[in-house]
Write the structure tokens for this entry.
Amino acid sequence: MKPAVDTGKHFINGDIACAEGAIAAGCLFFGGYPITPATEVAEHMSERLPHVGGTYIQMEDEIAAMTSILGGAWTGKKTMTATSGPGFSLMMETVGLAIVTETPCVVVNVQRGGPSTGLPTQGAQADMMQAKWGSHGDYEIIALAPSSPQEMFDLTITAFNLSEKYRTPVFIMSDEIVGHMSEKVVIPKKEAIKTISRIQPRGKKNNFHPFKPGPNGVAPMPSIGQGYKVHVTGLTHDEKGYPVMSVDTQAEMMERLLGKIRNNLDDIIMTDQYLLDDADIVIVSYGVSSRTSYTAVDMAREQGIKAGLLRLITVWPFPDRLIKELALRVKGFITVEINMGQISREVERCAGYKAPSYLAGHPGGAVVPPEQVISIMKEAF
Amino acid sequence: MKRTRLIFSGSGGQGVITAAIILAEAAVIHEGKNATQSQSYGAAARGGSTRSDVIISDEDIMFPEVNQANTLVCLTQESYNTYKELVRPGGIVITDSRFVTTTKKVDAKQIELPMYQTVMDKIGKPIVFNVCMLGAVLGVTEILKPPSVMDVLKSRVPEDFIEMNRKALDLGMDLGALRAV
């Protein structure tokens, strides 16, 4: 029987690497509902979790899968679900519930072509805005974009850590290409994996306030059954957790929810910068499209064009400041993504009138070829 | 070897993707190389065209798709018709002579092998057609050492079926070795 951390060199696909990352991070509950191309995440969790003391439940649909991981999280466990396309849409209302109840959990979206049932077996990156704004109301979210099976492992652990640290749902915005791609994945020794667990309350059980922020803006989170009295609701609530329908309480709650993300951007935002220091033209990309982009930067450099890459490992919250700073010194931006303009609009917003911004997009079903990026680069600059 | 790009194509259920995974895994786990295996397939469990790309390299692999294959394998006429342009000039196209009729318009060394027929005559089980094909690729191209592939098969195949797979791999290698490049 394999241990929770399956140390060694493996050749596995991104979905399986994601499941292994979750287990290595300490995930003990998975609420699943299979859907191509995310099914292998659920399948692998169903095989692995019972052997490491965890529980896999196949729920009746994605709404229930998402809801079950909130319940699991309130029992003190680290929890996850994985889905794609239509399933992500069904989960959206409960994502809002996770945000407002400050429930840590990880949601994996192995993106496929849409809208609707779209292209089940082919990749896209067209749910990026849905990840930011798909649930109603105003909120901040954390979303990470892995570009390889190795990163599916590594970033799933990071996703759990951020989720536990900030008491918030975290999205892993993968895609069919990375999910179904097999590559070398090195799983380190257990001792070398840094995991973070939520801060639990200490002290008196009476008069406990489960939504009163600690020093980092995040409230310690009790587990159901520990004896702390908690009230968990989707309604606007005060620090005790009770519904209070007032403008002041709404303002306080929103400040808490937004603040814990907005005041910790340096801790949450991760990027990789490739040949960016002397770059005139900045390619912005994430996930599988960043693999196109590394190749495009190399091709451009071979032709004497000073291109560089800003790869977003964290897509949400968006690195506004970094793009704004770059816009002051570069000729312009090209965003590479498998949609017809989502993150490119964010780049455009941050670049403002300081630098032009272009899209090297794709309607879905395949990766953007590097030649397309080069051709736009030559046309635009 | 700096970088080898292969495309395996055929019809769903022929084991094309599995063969690609086995080859790439052998390269990574047993020969210390980097390999990326990606795939495209339709929504049907059987039938429909299937393609899997494998890049094997000593260096990092970024762009995962193959459009100038060193070696292209086609196990159906449809996949041959669809992908024959994706072989690089002077590359190798391996087809199964039962399922594919090749045209002369391809600028590559085209190798037609009776892989399916040999498997049916000598083993009688079509399930190892893909492993025979993998043997043929090894025989023709010598990109990896056969024991590396056999080690992967041993780790993936139930014990009772290992001998059948070994035989299929050997049959393929013999067919391929006659046409080695």
